[in-house]
């Protein structure tokens, strides 16, 4: 267990990092721009042999592996499920795990989502922080270790997944068939060390005979909070309606607008987008719109009841509306999100949803509680059979590897942070012996953009933003952590 301060050899090693970064920063940004330009949304519905997640994911993986080859590294392609970049010639690997797939762009971007925009110290584009920025940092970490001629006892194996944002079928496959490293660091979280991740239930609610509610449209992914929701009503836009909209109360206050169209009135709700697992700065536009519909009294009796139930279910991101207000000390509150609202068949509304539940609870119990609540509302809202329950992840805080990584972070940053838990889900859930460690960061006035609209700049949201200096500051942390981890594992052998 590493508790001593940095020694002189470590200090000398770290002193070489900043000059190296200065020489390579612009190249990193240029290559990241190429990755961002590829809209690598994981699409299993477009699967073909060698491309289980669609053509754009294969394209971004091929591009990343080609860059690694040009830099002189060995690469492996794992049947389109993932790809590896390897440095070293040893019997065992230490893994660096990230992903190249992204969530859909969504709406309300100020800047183009699939073109990297650079403004001062900030980079903007879909995937810059989740997870293409950290993924390219892994590649440059290998270059740094090679250029500094640091001897290691293990290979370093970067593993790039392609379905982290959907069902993690990428590294589920790799865990069964790929060369699983002796131990892996997942570079898809925040610093310091993540020791617990909530369980995740991905499910779809089906509302048959939904009437006008079948036309409610919002969002693009179950794990993203929609900032925009709309519904077309076969009514006239009158002065009386405009006055009622202006007088709306509760979550709909000031967030509803109406636009006249050839087919009636388009009612629009504005919320705040973000990641479903971190809902505090967000506001789901769909229940805002439902609340407005209830108050405006524009629905039939059945539609009114359905809208009231759905608004109650999703208006809070913490599950109170479904009797799921659960919380524990290791991992915090349960979260509930209706992320993608659509109609796939006539008169039916589908709501693709996401629950993150505390590590001390169990998925089947959560589902039973939700089922009972839906039954109390008359059984018109049902859970489709095809759902996914990913159990929680927990790495004991006393484990020497966790302490080694945690001490490295605190010693370099001169902080006294503790390991953390989160509702976010990473590949630590599916890859054996994998622990999430950075390179994300808590937002401060210095590293958060002040030039974006309110609610913009977050992962999974509009104008996803990366603070470049903070990302690059992760390189010395990872460098020393890998040197120490390599030595620790060698001693264990």
Cα-to-Cα separation, first versus last residue: 16 Å
Radius of gyration: 24 Å
Low-confidence stretches: none
Number of strands: 27
The number of helical runs is 12
> What percentage of residues falls in helices of 4 or more residues?
25-40%
Described by the principal axes of the CA atoms, the overall outline is elongated
Largest sheet: 9 strands, mixed
Mean pLDDT: 96
From the helix content, strand content and strand pairing, which structural class follows?
A: alpha+beta
Beta-strand content estimate:
15-25%
Q: What would the keywords be for this entry?
A:
493 residues, alpha+beta, single chain
Structure commentary:
Strands 1, 2, 3, 6, 7, 9, 23, 24 and 25 form a 9-stranded mixed beta sheet that branches. Strands 10, 19, 20, 21 and 22 form a 5-stranded antiparallel beta sheet that branches. Strands 11-13-15-14 form a 4-stranded antiparallel beta sheet. The protein starts with 7 loop residues before the first helix and ends with a helix. The chain has 12 helices and 27 strands. It has helices spanning 8-14, 17-36, 55-70, 128-147, 169-177, 239-246, 285-296, 301-314, 363-376, 400-413, 468-472, 474-492, and strands at 74-78, 82-87, 93-99, 117-119, 122-124, 155-161, 183-186, 189-190, 193-197, 199-207, 217-218, 224-225, 228-233, 256-261, 264-270, 274-275, 327-328, 332-333, 335-342, 349-357, 381-383, 388-390, 393-394, 420-422, 434-437, 439-440, 465-467. The mean pLDDT is 96. The protein is 32% helix and 24% strand. The chain is an alpha+beta fold and 493 residues long.
